[in-house]
Design brief:
This protein has about 160 residues and is of the alpha+beta class. Helix content is about 45%, strand content about 15%. The protein contains six helices and three strands. The chain is globular and about 40 Å long.
Length: about 160
């Protein structure tokens, strides 16, 4: 059954990619400043490596430019919303991917921000639970206190030596 779901997910992903439609994101056009900030955010997260595979999240289409949204919420402060799409609907590492996104952005964003990270709607079997976990500051802090988990996150978020 999981093999069938995986194949179905890959097939749908390919259809969406070739159709030119964005995967899991339906954001309206953004003002220029917010669009520039969104591209800046995307440039930071696209090189995060998948915990299981030798690929980046960009290569696996877990993150795309269209799944980053930035809204100005105050003077020089922005709300950054990321909606990522796991490779399969039952991805066991979706929480870890969300944690990597959060840690990398907390470390690298050069502007004041609030951060919300979600799994794209309808792309994971337990998206609500995972969304709660990756947006809970206490759970994120507790996860990063675990040395084994911290090491995996560090391996994923460290920039590759080209």
């Amino acid at each position: 059954m999981s093999l069938v779901l995986g194949l179905l997910s890959q097939t749908l992903s390919r259809l969406l990619r070739y159709s030119g439609l964005p995967r899991g994101c339906h954001a309206p056009p953004k003002p220029a400043m917010e669009q520039d900030k969104a591209l800046e955010v995307y440039d930071i997260i696209r090189t995060i490596r998948d915990p299981e595979k030798p690929n980046t999240l960009e290569e696996l289409e877990v993150v795309t430019e269209s799944c980053v949204e930035v809204q100005e919420i105050g003077e020089d402060e922005y709300l950054v919303i990321i909606r990522f799409t796991p490779t399969v609907p039952h991805c066991s590492l979706a929480t870890l991917i969300g944690l990597c996104l959060r840690i990398k952005l907390q470390r690298c964003l050069p502007f004041r921000h609030k951060l919300e990270i979600y799994i794209s709607e309808g792309t994971h079997s337990t998206e609500e639970d995972i969304n709660k976990q990756i947006n809970d500051k206490e759970r994120v802090a507790a996860a990063m206190e675990n040395p084994n988990l911290r090491e995996i996150v560090e391996q994923c978020v460290t920039e590759p030596d080209w």
